[in-house]
């Protein structure tokens, strides 16, 4: 009888700890996202991407050989990777322990 009681208490403790740990990753009192601010941020990122694409297009149009094209592509790729890193940091995905699978 004592073993069953101890097992039941241990099981309930394990379940309580796991439930608490599952809820601990999300802030409880986080304010809801502001629509206008989010819209503004997205438009700003899109403008940056469009500007980068236009610069890449102009660079490719001005290229006179394969090496020039390669240089344009490498420059554009580096800019896109930098923007990608910035977006990850803004969304909280840039460091260890960040959400995965998005």
How are the elements arranged and paired?
Layout (H helix, E strand, L loop, with lengths): L1 H22 L11 H28 L3 H25 L12
Helix pairs in contact: 2-3
Structure commentary:
- The protein is mostly helical and 102 residues long.
- It has a domain at 35-91.
- Helices cover 74% and strands 0% of the residues.
- It contains three helices and no strands.
- The chain has helices at 2-23, 35-62, 66-90.
- The mean pLDDT is 77.
The H/E string reads HHH
What structural class should be given to the helix and strand makeup? mainly alpha
Q: Kindly estimate the percentage of residues that lie in beta strands according to DSSP.
A: under 5%
> Total strand count, please?
0
| Count of helix runs | 3
Major beta sheet, specifics? none
Mean pLDDT: 77
Task: Estimate the global geometry from the Cα principal axes.
Answer: elongated
Distance between the termini: 48 Å
Helix content: over 70%
Low-confidence region ranges: none
How large, in whole angstroms, is the Cα Rg?
Answer: 25 Å
